[in-house]
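Lines hold sequence, tokenised fold; shown next:
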Amino acid sequence: MFYLSKILSAITQPMFWLAIWWFTALVIISKWRRAAHTMLWSGLFVLFLLGFEAFPNMLLRPLENRFSVPQPQDISKYAGFIVLGGATGHPHGFLEHGQVPLGSAAERMTIPVGWMRSNIHFELVFSGGEGRMITTGTTEATLAGAFYKEQGLDMQRVRLEDGSRNTRENAQKVAALLGDSCQKNWLLVTSASHMPRSMEEFNAVGCHVTPYPVDFQTSSNTAWTEYSLASSLMRWQVALHEWLGLAVYAFTR
């Protein structure tokens, strides 16, 4: 499943398919010049269209709106947080400069901190190993431990799971780490678009979790004037990865 998830990361990138499309055009250009030129120009037009953020947001919005954020007055009744990795960057900054790199999904890491301070009975379970094909030797759990220590959390209330490489392994290894405590009521923290797949996996292993989605990328609507090729391509990849991941996980469960 780990290697399959890495393949999904490649094929859900629009530029991957455009590169194949353009490469094919270059291969056939000497024999079918007109067809190749049509392919090259049509690929360029598709690339232009991919920059409109409204398109990928149409795919992201149903994922992000599936679960709502718990009400603040209800938070204290839970045992604590299960936080999934995916918010930290490459560890070279940490290894060379001692600073924990947070990525675009930083809310996964930061939001539980305030609640941990105001609810002294809370525990925090962080789940994240190394999801790279070529490992660095530094897990996300290592970075998370350093981050939470910097934030002044009581590390006696923090548990780190450092063996998982994808969402399915997150659920399986957290269930094994918590044992019977997995039957307590936990708040599951991950990006809103990633929450549907995460909930299905944690429910499958029998953990009692309530979604606490963070890192929202969409609002109720997106103006057609919102155009950013770099940002939109990332949204396309996230949306396609999550929808395809839901299908694959359901098929392989």
Summary: The longest helix spans residues 229-252.
